[in-house]
Amino acid sequence: MTALSPSGPLVDGKLVETPHTITVVNPATGEACAECPAATPELLERAVDAAVRAAPAWAKEPGARRWTLETVATVLDENREALARTLSTETGIPVRDAAMEAAGAAAFARHRAAGPLPVDSVHDDERQRVQVRRAPIGVVGAIIPWNAPLLISAEKISTAFATGNTVIVKPSPLAPLTTALLGELLAQSVPSGVLGVLPGGDELGAALVAHPAVGMISFTGSIDAGRAIMAAAAPRLKRLSLELGGNDAAIVLPDVSGGAVAKTAAKVYAGAFYRSGQVCAAIKRLYLPRPVFGEFTEALAALAGQAVVGDPFDPSVTMGPVSNRAQSDRVRGLVEDAVAAGGTVLAGGPEVSGPGYFHRPTLVTGLAADTALVAQEQFGPALPVLPYDEVDEAVAAANDTDYGLGASVWTTDPERGAEVAASLDAGSVWVNRHGVVSPEIPFGGMKQSGYGRANGAAGLDQYSELKTVSVRR
Questions:
Q1: Per-residue pLDDT, 2
Q2: Pairing, β 248-252 against β 283-289
Q3: Which intervals hold domain Aldehyde dehydrogenase (predicted)?
Q4: What are the Cα distances from residue 184, in Å, to 72, 112, 120, 277?
């Protein structure tokens, strides 16, 4: 086994051979870098059958589940370098950021291993005892996106294990290698049947969703795909956790002026362009008070001009490529459309010359609210910047969307920021920070940006059947 050559899908505790493969393209070169073994419908049936058989005993062993999660965390830590290199190769994110993702994945596993499932006490007196307990759903199908496959796989696996479920993971065909490598590394560390890792295309994902023995689907990805999954899950009333697209707005309040401008601009820039903007909760629209609009955009443009875009394994590089050709074409098309609509590019613009899917961090001003770059999720290194006169105007503009994943408020007065945050329609609203997601804090979207919550106690409930036990004394 090498980092870029996983041995095969993980089925019933074993790595199995398959004649089918997925060609994986390195976005830094635009060329094929590996062939990932791909699962077949027959392997899916075998994996589901194994997960069903393993589920009853697994549900009854909370101690074994916690021990397994600790082992998962250890495996992630011990193989951080190989995982990071694989992740960087197939997604293009700088390898140091890939290592941070591996560390975050281990943190998710350790968090879920930390304690038993909570039991809620509703009544406990001389007349009655009423408790709400969390029972497993059974087999969870986890469908993983291409942008952060290791972290999101770890989150879904860890929460499924903690709640007593078995889980089958289906990574994106655009970035299957890291998840496949994780399955290979865990093959000897988890009980047979409780984890399946099945790389494959959209047809395999559809079969996983439709399978009658799969009781829950946990999906992270686009709104359109989430709607399709919800429709396919409806006939059997499958449980769902859907973390979908976002068009996160950031509002800088008028009190940010003078020396606070440069400091705030640096943080906003990071919130927008970290990992080339390919983060579900990245800043995707920026609203600035008109009096500081020029100064603030100049500070952002200077930061964009300092970005070193290139090989993700080069220590001097601060931004790698866009992760795949389709997404690169989309970002370029949105910027071209914005310019055609009268927008002005303040920084960035053309792709970096040479092979690969490189695109410099791009700022665009002078856009109407209905311009595609403003109204849609770009999911890449292009940020529309819009002026406002009154805070209520900015809040209304931020809320005027079908998206509702995240938002942020930037201010020198945190309490005022919290007041404005309360009026924003998003599942997570940050003040003087953006996109902070951790295992203990619930995360998910409002409106079209999702259904349910991941992380925290709310995430445990999402993967559980809540069972009320009522005892008359």
A1: 45
A2: parallel
A3: 20-469
A4: 12, 21, 38, 30
Q: Which domains does the chain have, with CATH numbers?
A: 10-244+447-472 (3.40.605.10), 248-431 (3.40.309.10)
Does 419 participate in catalysis according to the annotation? no
Residue at token pair 């990574």: 171
Per-residue exposure over 27-51, b if at least 16 CB sit within 10 Å of its own CB, e if not: bbbbeebbebbbbbeebbebbbebb
Q: How far is CA 402 from CA 64, 223, 264, 445, in A?
A: 43, 10, 27, 11
Q: Which residue has the tokens 């004649």?
A: 19
Q: Which of 184, 243, 351, 377 is catalytic?
A: 243
By the 10 Å C-beta count (0-12 exposed, 13-18 middle, 19+ buried), 349 is classed as: middle
The whole-chain average pLDDT of the chain stands at 97
Residue 235's alpha-carbon distances to 40, 46, 212, in angstroms, are 24, 23, 10
Local confidence band at 3 (pLDDT 50, 70, 90 cut-offs): low
In the chain, the percentage of residues whose pLDDT exceeds 90 is 97
Question: Amino acid identity of 368?
Answer: A
In degrees and rounded to multiples of 5, residue 163 shows phi and psi of: -95, 5
Spatial contact of 401 and 375, defined as CB atoms under 8 Å apart: yes
The mean per-residue pLDDT over the stretch 51-55 comes to 98
- Cα separation, 397 vs 203, in Å, equals 38
Query: How many other CB atoms sit within 10 Å of the CB of residue 158?
Result: 28
Measured distance CA(443)–CA(244) in Å, rounded? 11
Complete DSSP assignment for 177-215 = HHHHHHHHHHTTTS-TTSEEE----HHHHHHHHH-TT--
Query: Residue 143 pairs with which residues in a beta bridge?
Result: 170, 219
Which tokens go with 348? 């960035």
Q: Are 129 and 145 in contact (CB under 8 A)?
A: no
Structure tokens that stand for 368 in this block = 């109407």
What sign results for the dihedral spanned by CA atoms 326, 331, 332, 338?
A: positive
Tokens 């291409």 belong to residue: 146
Per-residue pLDDT tens for 189-217? 999 999 999 999 999 999 999 999 999 99
In three-state form (DSSP H/G/I as H, E/B as E, the rest C), the secondary structure along 352-378 is: CCCCCCCCCCEEEECCCCCCHHHHCCC
Q: What is the pTM of this model?
A: 0.96
CA distance 134 to 459: 12
Residue 457 tokens read as 């106690």
